[in-house]
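Fold it.
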Amino acid sequence: MHAVPPAPLTRRALLRSALTAAVLAGTAAALAPVLRARRPRQTVTPAPLAEETYRGRHIAVDLAGVRIDGRPLHVMRRADGSYLSGVNHFQSYGTPMELARAAVDELGTNQLAMAAPHHG
């Protein structure tokens, strides 16, 4: 048997290959977000850095903030490193946990609002 030499690469074949590659790449780029959205998302809730029950209320401090009974407490960090809360703007506390305990004392039997306040 005689080996047939490969046909020389023509300009038409080169352009056809390039066009096919471009169409495949464009299709993949267009479908990637759709295929990514179909995968179930894994939601990660940060583990609490500190957690305790104080006067019957559950307090959790994590990277997302401070929560009392699962409701967010508006916390602000001061320039000196202390913390203020939306419950009491007039006194600062050394740690978020101290701030949360003071907020529980101030709230008494009341609950925090579900939505965090927005400053306009």
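Residues 11-38 form the longest helix (28 residues).
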